Amino acid sequence: MKKAVIFDMDGVLIDSEPVYLAHLRHFLEENHCRVDEELLQAMAGASSKKTWGLMAQMWHKETSPESIQARYREAYPDFQAPYSKVLFPGVRELLAWLGEVQITAAIASSSSERSIRRMLMETELEAYFSCLVSGEMFKESKPDPEIYLYTLGQLGLPAEECIVVEDSTYGISAAKAAGLEVVARRDTRFPFDQSEADYLVERTCQLKEVLTGAWLPSHLV
Q: Is 10 a catalytic residue?
């Protein structure tokens, strides 16, 4: 049994990626920009820097990613995903079980600390997590492993005693580069390469089966 589970947030705890991408599509359309669906899908799980770089490729005239981001924040200063409505089924029960068996739960997300804390508050999950790490703390985002190496340091545990739950190509690569086992929540809506993951599950709550040795590849339907 592992001593800690490190969760990504978007696409793992909450189904927020479709909400964000739909909103970015709307932002492009209202600014009379072409929408390249392949570039838009590539934003799922991406860092803020990569996201706005991709947005710049679709902008109607040559503009810096920073300028587009500033324009977006001016237009939508308070936009956020409806966190309580997009919490994945079974997550609350999974976190309660982890507490019962004394497995520490942590979050290591590319999202801002403000977003992470707001998500926890709105979903009423604050009590389940003892460690929160935001990608904004680091110069490089996932797939750079720094966020996971730092989280291990905060937990005071070696990689072999922890396991990560991820979904995106970037996140899986970052965790593997940090020497961690990875459970990937399968999501065929986006062009993720999840081949590096040690386990592939349909639902985040199936992590319990992985940790107890009850999970089998045949459970993936």
A: no
Distance from C-alpha of 204 to C-alpha of 13, rounded to nearest angstrom: 7
Torsion sign, CA atoms 137, 143, 146, 151 = positive
CA atoms of 211 and 43, how far apart (whole Å): 30
pTM, 2 dp:
0.90
Instruction: Provide the 10 A C-beta neighbour count for residue 27.
Output: 18
Give the active site residue among 8, 10, 167, 187: 8
Provide the 10 A C-beta neighbour count for residue 194. Answer: 19
User: Residue 170 to residues 6, 68, 130: CA-CA distances in angstroms?
Assistant: 15, 23, 24
Residues with Cβ within 8 Å of residue 146, at least 6 apart in sequence: 138, 139, 140
Model pLDDT for residues 122-138, shown as the tens digit of each residue: 999 999 999 999 999 99
